[in-house]
Amino acid sequence: MLFGGEEVKAEELWAEFCSKRGIDKDTPYEAWGFGRDGEESDQLAKLVVEGKKFGTASLYDVYEAEDALDELPKVGGYSVILDSHEEAVCIIRDYDVYIRPFREVSPFHAYSEGEGDRSLEHWRGVHKEFFEGEAKECGVTFSEESKVVCEKFTLEYVAGCDVPEGELLFVEPTMNYADEIVAYRQEMLDVNSSFDGCFSMKRMPDPQEYVDYCIGWANPSREADVHGAWGNVLLVIRKADNKMVGCMQVHNVLTQRMKDCTGHVGYSVRPAERRRGYATKMLAKGLDFLSSFGFKEVVASCLPENTGSKKTILANGGEYIDIRYLESDDVNLERNLMRNVIRPHHGMCFQFYEGKGYDENFTDHMGQIIHKMEANPSGKIVVSATTDMVCANCPNNQGGVCESQEKVLRYDTAVLEACEIEDGATINYEDFISLVRHRVIDAGLREQICGDCEWNELCRR
Predict the structure, then answer these.
(1) The pLDDT value given to residue 6
(2) Percent of the chain with pLDDT over 70
(3) Lower Cβ count inside 10 Å, N or C end of the chain?
């Protein structure tokens, strides 16, 4: 079995899941594995369990050639994921399914698949080869126009352990959420709220027009328009009730206006859902998504008087830059710089991480950061005793200040001294991790530095 423990067949895991969740065991499900060989199948299943992979893609023409269009994935459909030994690893459930030409598959979908550096370039290279081989076996031709079935899914159950309910889903605009888009827009209008991160929602009462516009904006194959920008709009859906609680706009190509004033990412939270921590989680996801484009630094802006947004930016490691006047909107905007900042003592945490922490949002986010860093070990980071990327989803993070500030600063200072690194230094990730391993962990200093941490027992193993 992929992760150790007893071997479990698909039907056994399904029965266990249905019993624990109160689901009719006769509910239909599919059982299958990722990839084309055993090693790839295991690697991709592992990414799902680790929370790094929440998307997959298949070739529409293969379903058609095999007369299996009735087997196309559907929203709400369950799957038992198998490893290379045909043993059950986990259960997933589709929450978003759409069909699009290969050339129009979006950067966010590439990011959702969790492979490599999660970039569109990597996704296209890997999947072009995969789809060409699959098409040849079925006697069809693959091209840039070939239709691709894109799925996003939630991790519902893992063999041997419960999976906490995920709180937020990030969805590319589709007509499946037409009613939620209309309701969100109306609520924003009712309270005269600014439509930050909503793209053209305010001026588009017709949800079909809005959805089409968002899809077109994210289309990587389109010609540059007069604005010369590409980007991605993400609807933020609360899983518990399928309600749209936020909207986010992430720019992978910036106009001059964005470069000078508004920055890489904008976001808003539904008025009735504010002050629940959603904005901090949304911005953290946006920053992680932006890393797949290779951005080393990201700018986020807000109105100087918007204390809530300023706290969200600070909680994600934002550093004040300046205030710029945006003439077209007649407003001042406070710009903040977001970088790959890592607290010194987190260099220890990364090396003992095993998917445990304060809550699911925190552990998923930390796992994604580690995956991102390990995918580009020579990438530059800033080592600084301040709120960092990991802190963004930590429940102890109160507006950019840790509730245990005195303790964590003590940890940070000790690590900096042991590694002979200056606070705020820029260094390769792999060099930083190596320094911490040799000068702190291997030198036997870890427990001396952070022995009073509540997670100390995990690091003793």
Answers:
(1) 67
(2) 95
(3) C
Rounded Cα–Cα distance for residues 458 and 273 (Å): 36
Domain borders along the chain are 10-163, 170-290, 341-459
Fold of 170-290: Aminopeptidase (3.40.630)
How many helices (H) and strands (E) are present in the chain, helices listed first?
16, 17
For residues 145 and 103, the answer to whether their CB atoms sit within 8 Å is yes
H, E, C per residue of 428-446: EHHHHHHHHHHHHHCCCCH
Q: Confidence class of residue 296 from pLDDT cuts 50, 70 and 90? A: confident
List 263's β-bridge partners, or say none: 300
Q: What is the pLDDT of residue 226?
A: 58
Amino acid at 247: C
Q: Which are the contacts of 189, defined by CB distance < 8 A and separation ≥ 6?
A: 202
Rounded to whole angstroms, how far apart are CA atoms 255 and 275? 31
Lowest mean pLDDT across 96-110, 176-190, 228-242: 228-242
Angle made by CA atoms 118, 52, 401, in degrees to the nearest 5: 100
- At residue 223, the pLDDT reads 79
Using the predicted structure, report yes or no on whether residue 62 has a pLDDT greater than 60.
yes
Distance CA 241, CA 167 (A): 10
* Whole-number Å distance between alpha carbons of 392 and 163: 22
pTM over 0.85: no
Write phi, then psi, for 230 (nearest 5 degrees). -120, 155
3 state SS of 240:
coil
Angstrom distance (rounded) from CA 422 to CA 73: 52
The kind and range of the H/E element at 150 are strand 147-158
**CA gap 441, 456 in Å, rounded:** 13
Nearest to 77 by CA among 64, 62, 58, 61: 58
A 10 A CB-CB count for 316 gives: 29
CATH code for residues 10-163: 3.10.400.10
**Which long-range contacts link 76-79 to residues 24+ away (Cβ below 8 Å)?**
77/28, 77/29, 77/30, 78/27, 78/28, 78/29, 78/30, 78/156, 79/29, 79/30, 79/31, 79/32, 79/153
